[in-house]
Amino acid sequence: MNNYFGIGIDADLCLDFHNAREENPNQFNSRLRNKGYYVKMGLRKIVGRKAVKDLQKELRLEVDGKIVELPPVDGIIILNILSWGSGANPWGPDKDDQFSTPNHYDGMLEVVGVTGVVHLGQIQSGIRTAMRIAQGGHIKIHLNTDMPVQVDGEPWIQSPGDVVVLKSALKATMLKKNKLKMKRRNTEPTMMVAGSAAPPLSLALPPSVGEVGVAGEGAEGDGGTNNTDF
């Protein structure tokens, strides 16, 4: 996981969208049309039977070794950055509460909850924030049943078992600009004298980019207990 991990209603919507796009890829050819399909699928979830409901009864959340009591929610989102769903901020602005101000390098993850499709739409519109649940560096979720999940927009059905999100898997090696300024080369033309040696060719190669730390990969299971790390 690099950005966010979702379980419940948001992952269910993401999975429906993914399956529909796989069946008819030509119909998903613009950002505006894709958002329209998302709205249409969300409305179907509102008027139809919910595939995910009362998530707090189907899983157990553990943050830094402590069990966290969940409020009534239909979805949980774990954030590594304060941007989700095309730029929305589920965590919201600073408040006078027990949580610290998040940043990108504190090694902490933020856990928030959503109550349904309408709540998701309000977060996307910026008129409401998600329910703040917890902060921590090591998050473990025990699933009692098959559950839709998604990591950075990639959805699947996760079989029962433990899902672990590790802060050690969130580090990435990035390129850094060299502070030393390159000397300006002489741009004046020079004449080559017959018999003289040509100057050596110097190539400056960029430093190699390290691999982004991602641990674990989800897939449909056979219903047995399994452990998945992100």
Automatic annotation (TrEMBL):
Q: Which domain of life is it from?
A: Eukaryota
Sample GO molecular function, one term: zinc ion binding
Q: Which UniProt keywords apply?
A: ATP-binding, Kinase, Metal-binding, Nucleotide-binding, Transferase, Zinc, Zinc-finger
**Pfam annotation, one family:** DAGK_acc
Which cellular component terms (GO) are annotated to the entry? cytoplasm; membrane; nucleus
A Gene Ontology BP annotation from the UniProt entry: protein kinase C signaling
Q: Return the Gene3D superfamilies for the record.
A: 2.60.200.40
Q: Where is the Diacylglycerol kinase accessory domain?
A: 1-155
Question: What PANTHER family does the entry give?
Answer: DIACYLGLYCEROL KINASE, DIACYLGLYCEROL KINASE THETA
Q: What is the protein's name according to its record?
A: GH12677p
